[in-house]
Every structure is written in structure tokens, then in C-alpha cells.
Amino acid sequence: MSDSIIIIPTYNEIENVDAMIRKVFSLEKEFHVLIIDDGSPDGTAGVVKKLQQEFTGKLHLEQRKGKLGLGTAYIHGFKWSLKNNYNYIFEMDCDFSHNPDDLIKLYNACAVEGADLSIGSRYIKGVNVVNWPMGRVLMSYYASAYVRFITGMSIRDTTSGFKCYTRKVIETINLDAIKFKGYAFQIEMKFTAWKFGFKIKEVPIIFTDRQEGVSKMSGGIFKEAVFGIIQMKVESWFRKYKR
User: Fold this and answer.
1) Residue limits of the Glycosyltransferase 2-like domain (predicted)?
2) Sign of the dihedral defined by the CA atoms of residues 79, 84, 86, 90, in that order
3) Host H or E run for residue 91
4) Nearest of 115, 235, 120 to residue 169 by alpha carbon
5) Helix, strand or coil for residue 10?
6) With contact defined as beta carbons under 8 Å apart, do 93 and 122 qualify?
């Protein structure tokens, strides 16, 4: 039994899911994988089901009906992971923009170095992004600067979706009170963990844009992040953050 579970939300990732799962299971540390598939019409879930026969007890699949949002996928995965007694709970994309080799660095930041939440950070040491157009790099970089300004957090990569949570962080946060469903979900979870006083460590990574499949980023997602952060900050003034 592994102490670590990697939650990977999928929607039309048939080009990537087999290779990603095999790569994770080839690492020297044993990780388990939970795929949360939102009814991918391309057959992503079918690929995972076949692989479950090969990786019995290590590969898990939760299927949902339709695209219900990134945030709700992770909330579903968090609750599943707590119920199944994992101590280290990871978030990772399926498209290899997050390098699976970095999972061990994120794990060690928590399990060895004592962090409660470790973040795969594109911006802790300069700008480490490959294959993004300059406009998107600038948008992402200054979005993090904007979030730091509004929230007061010192985290350099506030929108990163490559993370390791210790069990106690997920148990402490009221998951049903998390409001955002898109990429702003990543900011809200970090902000909430920070408000509770958990130790957060950024681990430098190199982010590489997807080679296969289609990006899920949209203008609406970006708008949610920009305008929702102020509301999130204001509402935090009226909440109690006690462990």
C-alpha cells in the first residue's frame, strides 16, 4: 500500500493517459493514481479500465457525467483519497506539462523536509516555462503577481496545479466551502491553506506546454481568477481559520 495518491482529472486525454500512467508507475517511489474522468467522449476512461487489469490495486478510476469543472474534480478526488487513507495527496495534469519525475521532489518536500503543502513552481527561480507563447507567459506571471498583491501571500506561482498536500491540510479545509471551479480553484486552495498557517514550500520545476490534445484554458476561466480573487480576499476577513 502506497502512502501517496496522484489525482489526475481527465477530459479527452486519450493521447496522453496511457503514457502518463505508465510513467508514474515506473518511478522508484511507489505512487498510486486516481483518474477522475468527466465523461470523455474520446474513450479516455476505456483506456484506464484496461490498464487497471495490469495495475491492480494501484490505478483507480472515478467516472463523472459530463464536464463538471476542474475544482469539483479535485474535491471529489480529495474526499476519495481521505476515505482511502492516503497521507500525501497530489494534483497533476495528464498532458505532461508537469514532469512526473518531479513528483518525488514534491513528496520529499513534505515527507522529509516537513512542508504541509509543496508546490511545483514555475516562477520560484526565474521563469521556467517551455513552448508557451510570450503573451501567455506574461499573463500567467503577472496573474501570480496580482494574486500576491491582493492576498498578501508570498507564493511565487499562485496558479500552479502541480502540488502535494499532506492529509492534515485536506482534512482541515472545508472542501464544501471552496467556491471556484476553474483554475482559480488552485489559488483558493493555496490561499486557504496559507490562512490556516500551514507550512508551504515551492519546489522549482520546468513547465512544458502539452504536445498532445487540446488545452482547456478559456477566457471565462481567466476572468473568474481576476475578479473572484478580490471577493475571496474580502470574504476571508469574516471567516475564522482555526485548526
Assistant:
1) 6-172
2) negative
3) strand 88-91
4) 115
5) strand
6) no
Angstrom distance (rounded) from CA 7 to CA 32: 9
The whole-number pLDDT of residue 222 equals 63
Which amino acid appears at position 30 of this protein?
Answer: E
pLDDT at 121: 94
103, amino acid identity: L
Burial of 12 from C-beta contacts in 10 A (0-12 / 13-18 / 19+)? buried
Helix (H) or strand (E) holding 150: helix 134-151
Please compute the mean of the pLDDT values over residues 123-144 and round it to a whole number: 76
| Residue 43 reports pLDDT greater than 90 | yes
What residue type is 207 in one-letter code? Answer: F
* Distance of alpha carbon 83 from alpha carbon 87, whole angstroms: 11
